[in-house]
Specification:
Belongs to the AFG1 ATPase family. This is AAA+ ATPase domain-containing protein. The structure is a single chain. The chain has 22 helices and eleven strands. Helix content is about 50%, strand content about 10%. With about 575 residues, the protein is of the alpha/beta class. The strands form two sheets. It has a six-stranded mixed sheet with strand order 6-11-10-9-8-7.
Length: about 575
């Protein structure tokens, strides 16, 4: 273990407080900042090999070439999609105008035929109640409304024409392979190269993507399911029609029925807003980079199938990484029919490539650099004293006052931070992993603090399997947000995750959502909407996670902990962590 002065030198290198100009490219430190004429991922990879920062690997070079081919097609595809969205916007506007005109004509014809004579015999002012929001109008859909809706849609097709055809999208990439073989690195090089070329693009880790899906579902239900929002969205144009009030009542009922139909298709609606850059008025191509794609439970399969299918059908280019080939993601056969349809679509829209390398390059980089000076062990007096010195030294360096803080999470929840100082925070293992918290809490911590101190990390066995699961999720999020981690632990990294004869270490209730009561309701509703049984949750989840699956999770966490000690990773903290991208 190095002396404090030597450790401080590494910390100063990684945690310089001088902030760079803000850019949106958040990826690993081997990704160079974007330039006006991006050269592409293969060029970036070759340069890093020439500089000696990466070891040449033929498997990685093959994947980098595939990314380069995809990159070369994107500029033309972006222009095609910009033209398509102009045509689509015009078509949608014309269709909506015609739809409203047809409804008014239908209503007036019903009035002429005397259909209204039997309505509202009690003199109820239904439209007034609708608009004022005293109570929701009771609209019984029935077969009649469904037939009326379908006939109107057919008429619109004949009047306006069919939806504009989407340009043929370049095939995306699905990259799979062992831990540390370079999947995420290569994907991030590609994502970095597209900055400034593709306006609508996102990069998500599995946990973050699932949280975003849940958050968007909750927002959609709140905005479209509440009586108030439905009332005013309907009344805004109906009330200004120069027609009889009974005609308005009928049109309002038809409009409400349309909204009810849309509520039954929530996943496509969420997908339509999943990648859109709300700050950009202009629409174009979209790219989704999805790291560590998994199918941990029934909800993940249903949600991913609905979201991804919609995105692929509407021209999104998907780039995904995983430890498994697509057909091996769902080894226990949960919701097999839905899963198989999703995988068939994935294989149609993506080139499937295996990185065959057996080398964990994170470990190679660690061996060729410094000791693991930020991971201190064992838990003896000397280590604890060293840990305290490092904490004092880093907080003194930033010169701020130690305070507690409360961070917003989601669904109105918060997470408390006992000690923090200008982007640096301190926790015990028990505080972060010994309570019922999940990925949402860890993401909030990782986004707000560039340096995290965690003390007293124990060796993990079956007896503390839930804590081990949370710790693995925590490591994922600290790594994804490029945090500097300083920790004290009972054992070396490679001995941290221990199984026992009593059984496997993992035992999931829900892999990434643990305390979200609102989220639990949303998950149940989505499964119910899709007529999905509860099979596979939670008992099938435990069954699904075989020893091999656990081995992937443990190996990934250990590999990432090792990489987080290297100078290459630490150099990237001040450039890539969200804290340093905040406006001054």
């Amino acid at each position: 273990m190095r002396k404090v002065s030597q450790i401080s030198a590494v910390l100063r290198l990684a945690l310089s407080s001088s902030k760079r100009s803000r850019h949106t490219n958040v990826c690993r430190s081997y990704c160079t900042p974007p330039n006006p004429t991006p050269s592409g991922p293969l060029t970036s990879y070759s340069k890093l090999v020439e500089q000696g920062r990466l070891q040449h690997d033929p498997y990685q070079e093959k994947v980098a070439s595939a990314f380069q081919n995809l990159f070369g097609r994107l500029e033309h595809f972006e222009k095609e999609m910009e033209d398509y969205h102009v045509r689509l916007e015009e078509w949608e506007k014309k269709r909506e105008e015609e739809r409203r005109r047809l409804m008014v004509e239908e209503a007036e014809k019903k009035e002429e035929d005397g259909v209204w004579a039997s309505m509202n015999k009690q003199g109820q002012k239904l439209l007034g109640r609708w608009v004022l929001g005293r109570r929701q109008m009771n609209v019984e859909p029935g077969v009649g409304k469904w037939v009326s809706y379908l006939n109107r849609e057919r008429k619109l097709d004949s009047i306006v024409g069919s939806r504009p055809a989407i340009p043929s999208a370049p095939k995306g990439l699905y990259i799979y392979g062992n831990v540390g073989c370079g999947k995420t690195m290569l994907m991030d090089m590609f994502y970095s190269a597209t900055d400034g070329m593709i306006r609508h693009r996102q990069r998500f880790h599995f946990h973050e993507a699932m949280l975003k899906i849940n958050e968007q579902m909750h927002k959609y239900w709140k905005e479209n399911g509440e009586e108030k929002s439905s009332q005013y969205s309907v009344s805004s144009w109906i009330m200004n029609l120069p027609v009889d009030e009974r005609v308005k009542e009928w049109i309002a009922g038809e409009e409400f029925y349309k909204q009810q139909l849309q509520m039954k298709h929530i996943l496509p609606a969420v997908a339509d807003k999943f990648l859109v850059d709300q700050q950009s008025i202009k629409k174009g191509a979209s790219i989704l980079c999805f790291d560590e794609i998994q199918t941990v439970d029934v909800f993940a399969i249903v949600a991913l199938s609905g979201i991804m299918s919609r995105l692929l059908n509407t021209g999104t280019v998907l780039v995904a990484t995983s430890n498994r080939a697509p057909r091996e993601l769902n080894q226990d056969g949960m919701q097999k029919e839905i899963f198989d349809k999703f995988i068939s679509k994935l294989e149609k829209h993506c080139e499937i490539i295996s990185i065959g390398s057996e080398v964990d390059y994170r470990r190679v980089a660690a061996k060729n650099s410094v000791e693991h000076v930020h991971y201190l062990w064992p838990l003896n007096n000397a280590v604890m004293e060293e840990f305290e010195k490092m904490w004092r030294q880093v907080t003194d360096q930033y010169g701020g006052e130690l305070t507690s803080a409360t961070l917003p999470v989601m669904f109105g929840r918060t997470v408390d931070v006992p000690e923090s100082c200008k982007g640096v925070a301190r926790f015990t293992f028990e505080y972060l992993c010994g309570r019922p918290v999940g990925a949402a809490d860890y993401i909030a911590v990782a986004k707000n603090y560039h340096t995290i101190f965690i003390s007293e990390i124990p060796a993990m066995s079956m007896e503390i399997r839930d804590k081990a699961r949370r710790f693995i999720t925590l490591v994922d999020e600290l790594y994804n947000h490029h945090c500097c981690l300083v920790s004290s632990a009972e054992t070396p990294i490679d001995e941290l995750f221990q199984g026992t004869a009593e059984g496997t270490l993992f035992d999931l209730e829900s892999f990434q959502f643990e305390t979200e009561t609102e989220d639990s309701r949303l998950r149940r509703d989505v499964l119910a909407e899709g007529s999905i049984s509860a099979a596979g949750s939670p008992s099938s989840i435990v069954k699904m996670l075989s020893g091999e699956e656990e081995m992937f999770a443990f190996a990934r966490a250990a590999s990432r902990l090792i990489e987080m000690q290297t100078p290459l990773y630490l150099e990237g903290v001040r450039f890539l962590h969200p804290y340093f991208h905040q406006p001054k």
